[in-house]
Design goal:
This protein is mostly helical. The chain contains three helices and no strands. It is 82% helix and 0% strand.
Length: 66
């Protein structure tokens, strides 16, 4: 079994938390897409799709780094 120091373990946990937060945000955007677009309180239609695309890219970049 490989021993990791405290900072390496913290970095891994922090990375998992970041990924989980990004996935939660992506779930939110997809789950409430209709309501978000109907209300246009949070985002306009173009802003919504920009946010959706940016979130997907952030997740992909995060996975690529690992």
């Amino acid at each position: 079994m490989q021993c990791v120091n405290d900072t390496e373990m913290f970095d891994k946990v922090e990375g998992l938390n970041d990924r989980e937060e990004m996935l939660d945000h992506l779930r939110f955007l997809i789950r409430y897409e209709e309501e978000i677009l109907d209300d246009e309180i949070f985002y306009s239609k173009s802003e919504f799709y920009d946010e959706l695309f940016d979130t997907i890219i952030m997740i992909a970049d995060n996975l690529k780094e690992e």
